[in-house]
Please model this.
Amino acid sequence: MYEQSTNNASSFVSQVDSAFVFIFGISLLFLVGITAFMVYYIIRYRKSKNTEATHIEGNNKLEIIWTIIPTILVLSMFYYGWSGWKFQREIPEDAIPIKTIARMWSFTFQYENGLITDTLYVPRDKAVNLDLVALDVLHSLYIPAFRVKQDMVPGKQTNIWFESGMEGEYEIFCAEYCGLRHSYMQSVVKVIPPEEFEAMTRIDSSKLTSNNMIVDTRQAGNSIARKYGCNACHTADGSKLIGPSYKNIMGRTRTVLIDGEEREVVADEDYIRRSIYEPNAEIVKGYEKGLMLSYKDQVSEEEFQKLLEYFKYLSDQ
Amino acid sequence: MTKHETVSFREAQSRYKGIFAWIFSTDHKRIGLLYLYSIIIFFFTGVILGAAMKLELLAPGKTVMDAATYNAIFTLHGVIMIFLVVIPGLPAIFGNFMLPIMIGAKDVAFPRLNLLSWWIYVIGAIIALSSLFMSGGPPDTGWTFYAPYAFKTNTNMLPAVIGAFILGFSSILTGINFIVTIHRMRAPGMTWFKMPLFPWTLYGTGWIQILATPIVGITLLMIVGERIFSIGFFDPALGGDPILYQHLFWIYSHPAVYIMILPAMGAISEIIPTFANKSIFGYKVIVISTLAIAFVGYFVWGHHMFTSGMSGTALYTFSLLTFIVAIPSAIKVFNWVGTLHKASIQLETPFFWAASFLFVFMIGGLSGLALGALATNVHLHDTAFVVAHFHFIVFGGVGFAFMGAIHYWFPKIWGRMYNSKLATSGWIIFFIGFCTLYLPMFFLGVSGMPRRYYDYVERFHGPNIVSTIGSWVLILGLVIIVYNLIRSAYKGEKASKNPWGGRTLEWSVDSPPTLENFEEIPVVTRGPYDYRKKTEA
Model:
């Protein structure tokens, strides 16, 4: 179960919520007040009660009053909204940078030491600054419990920062419509003790795979697939999602389209390599072109070999 | 019967017969009804699509359709409802039918241009919907066609874009026609401040249509250029800027909200004094606030983009302007309620629609304040809260005003009365269904459910069930209302010239009006809402 709204989930919660309560309170007051006046008039002055209307064309004094009062109220709402928001633009200098990459339809998070995760880990009581990068289309990183949201725009870097005061797990949603699996583009932010975060981001990530002591090929391959968000579109159980499943591909003959022409190819190591680094060169028949981006410079050779073993394992069962 | 042998516009002979006497007619009343019938067809298509979405959201996971279908459905629902129903809605139907009569004219200034507008509308609509029957299927981009997704999707988004481009011309031509009609064709004695409020709102709307629509036109052309010729305007992969697209899109599409709501406010300003039997409170203030909304409405488009990554200065400037545009709307509400003070109110169906309009419009407007403030916007942006907000304004505001208008002017248009009890029960069921459908969405948005979600996490389940049930109640109300109106158009009791006791000029002509509306152009000596007895004046 994820944590819902608590006041110290992030440093913005209390300001945003008090602005909301202020605006909501005044709005409710007006709604109830005006509706009450209206209903009272309708009952009091219905035709059967009041057969003759009084001729009134207006009243300048009233017009001035009900122009000035709402003006003051909306300006105060504006001020409240602005003052509660401006901290979101004042990024502390010591905020820990975390590169956040969005693609259809997954988030990945990269820390200063190069470590990549599919879940966002942040330290408690420390400001973090997410550098937001979108690789394909617009996405929007939204953490409801923290009251933060920022669109991720391809070709342009945006930022979001926050500081959480409470350990726990909170939902991350993609809030900007991004295509077929938009509503499944979710992740989790885990607020952990600063020491743990320190330990996690200090280790040399190049040694990480060996340090992880992952011996089972299935686990290693699967964790790499998860880390790069592959599982948003591909499954390991043979079912079709956006792209073909990993299961039962190795060594099988596949019908692919190359520049619109059908060809039969055997799925060997080179084929898998091309599928990851040049995903749109050959499209398996029945799937759509242009949805997958190249993973060149992201998936390392070592990781590629792990994935290959994983796929072999899934095909040999 | 009057002493002259007169026939209504429905029976008047022209050189065409049958359906051609309608689709080639330059009579503003026939054109108004052509719009009505075409818009109603699209409206029901949109309603069915909306109901299908609510059904899918009844439970998490797949309920009745897959994600691709859902995404296409919410796109079509938006495109149809915005471009084909609500933007033309009140101006094209009641504006065409009533504007000339209300200002004492025989037709609009350019009757042929008026017919051309309807033809352009139909052609645009057919092109926009043609994607349904093409391989690749209807677009799945959302009605906003945001770049760069709109350039990457393999569905047919171009027909929808080209359709919307063509529809823009229909809108511009109607705007020009109404502005010239209002400037040049008012009856003798009808000074600007003796003109009824519905024509006033059409005047404000006309200017928005002329000035804002070309911007969306050029934007949609840029999309076409980008998709066909790969010119990089908006797609970063081609060197374009996706934020530029959002600016251009909302520079039109925000004022478009005022194209929708201003005539709705105009219709409400007609209904309330008629049923209150009393002059409208603060006539001139309402006129000025109409023009103020039309003017300030141009400068608030950025509030659709608070989380897009604009500069901080842009954010608080747009936030401030957004709050300022709220003031004239609030003033209108106060004046409408003020009109009821010491009135003598006839409790008839159009009045119930108008009163409930005030209620739902207030909820729509007040919820907009939480969206206009920066701190709360960041949390609520792109959530179900926004969906609830604009449905309260567009379906609540414009929709309720439309329902009020059609029940108000029904006797004038069809020359018959409807069953008042059935109409009122339709209204109450619709009203309850409407609130049940959209109020839970505010709650969902506050608790963080993003919009355009095919599937959702378990904690959003409860309010979604309530909302879906609301959609069923709303449709039940709608069926009752439509059944009653269609039946009454054929079998209703004959209506008199002025069944509600209205004082504006349309109530002085026959029901239904004759081809030329007036035998003799009237001379106007009194204000539009002067309910004093003739001797007192």
